[in-house]
Write a structure and sequence with these properties.
25% strand, 6 helices, alpha+beta, 375 residues, nine-stranded antiparallel β-sheet, six-stranded antiparallel β-sheet
């Protein structure tokens, strides 16, 4: 028997018979893997939290429970003056002053656009002053407007106009080709003219434009996008003891001819209700609430109360100033703004602009629903 070569054969047999042992673990690599797993888990958890916060915020915003709607400061928001003249036209008035008419159509046919520079009177005590002009552009049924203008009657045999004030304005008809035609409208004597062509019953011309323009603007309106406006921070007595300062907000440019008189020309979009309590410096605002759900019932209550307008002072003749004044800032579907003030004690009444009406239970109920009953 021969001996193996220095045991090398035995080593080879052992190598073949015994499987190779696993390599010892790399402890640093294992620690790194564990750290990376923890970081991934932490990152996923943080991302999930962010998603939950964003989704929760979106849901809260959509359902209206995130936070109350914040009103913006009142600034007149209507159409600007554009290239309108600073003042309304000055037309003759008084007995014997109204002109006869030259022949021809008041409004040439074929107009494609009507631009109205309106100068509405602004309610201010017993006076009527022209407001800053509004440039209103009509593209809806301009042909129908032209038909109404040309159907206005020629001058009457008698002259019954003795008025010199009022609004009035310029109505410019524009054409695809050819020059524009500008018609002057009188707000005092209700007649209109283009050069020497004169027509009467001018109120029909105003109403024809107003109806078409209001329909055009309402069709394009987005009531949900109309922002609420805030009340003043404080009310004080005005230049006379029976007036409040600042003046009520007034930013109206639409008119809708309807049977009977209406305070609000188009539907309301949002209501801001505020309560003012009398103190050493006047009436301080103690609460302010914005609400869209009461717009329809507020419209009904305002119209009913406004039909009782009785005078031109806010709390004239009251022995003492009221303790509580509630204010409604009304904003309609196209962004117009009007302010209504309610004195709740001493001399209860409702004030529209500068004209008061008797207190009305329906409107008081809406205010109390929003603000709670006065103390």
């Amino acid at each position: 028997m021969t001996q193996a070569d220095d045991g090398r054969d035995i080593g080879r047999m052992l190598d073949a018979a015994v499987p190779e042992l696993a390599a010892p673990p790399d402890r640093l690599a294992a620690v790194g893997r564990r750290v990376r797993r923890r970081q991934r888990r932490a990152g996923l958890a943080a991302a999930a939290c962010v998603v939950l916060v964003l989704v929760g915020g979106a849901v809260a915003f959509a359902t209206g429970h995130a936070q109350p709607e914040r009103p913006e400061r009142f600034v007149p928001a209507g159409p600007p003056a554009g290239d309108c003249p600073a003042r309304p036209p000055v037309l003759p008035y008084g007995d014997g002053a109204l002109p006869d008419s030259a022949p021809g159509d008041l409004a040439p046919a074929g107009a494609v656009r009507a631009v109205y520079c309106r100068y509405d009177p602004v309610p201010e005590l017993n006076m009527i002053r022209p407001a800053p002009p509004r440039r209103l552009v009509l593209t809806r049924d301009v042909a129908g407007l032209v038909t109404v203008l040309n159907a206005l009657p020629r001058p009457y045999n008698s002259d019954a106009c003795f008025n010199s004030g009022g609004g009035g304005g310029y109505l410019t008809l524009e054409y695809a080709t050819g020059p524009a035609a500008t018609i002057e409208l009188s707000g005092a004597c209700w007649y209109v003219r283009r050069g020497d062509i004169t027509r009467y019953d001018g109120v029909d011309a105003w109403e024809a434009f107003d109806a078409r323009f209001a329909a055009q603007e309402l069709a394009a309106s987005r009531p949900a996008a109309v922002r609420a406006v805030s009340c003043a921070d404080r009310l004080t007595t005005g230049p006379a003891d029976d007036l409040y300062s600042p003046d009520p907000a007034y930013d109206v440019w639409l008119h809708t001819p309807q049977i009977g008189w209406h305070m609000l020309p188009v539907p309301l979009a949002v209501v801001t209700a505020c309560r003012f309590v009398h103190g050493p410096g006047g009436w301080e605002r103690s609460r302010q609430v914005v609400n869209r759900a009461v717009a329809k019932e507020t419209t009904t209550a305002v119209e009913a109360a406004a039909k009782q307008l009785a005078g031109d002072r806010e709390f004239a003749g009251c022995p003492t100033p009221p303790r509580t004044i509630d204010v409604l800032m009304l904003r309609d579907a196209v962004g117009e703004t009007r302010e209504v003030r309610l004195t709740r004690d001493t001399c209860p009444r409702i004030t529209f602009d500068f004209k008061p009406a008797p207190a009305a239970g329906a409107l008081n109920s809406i205010v109390d629903k929003l603000l709670g009953p006065p103390d």
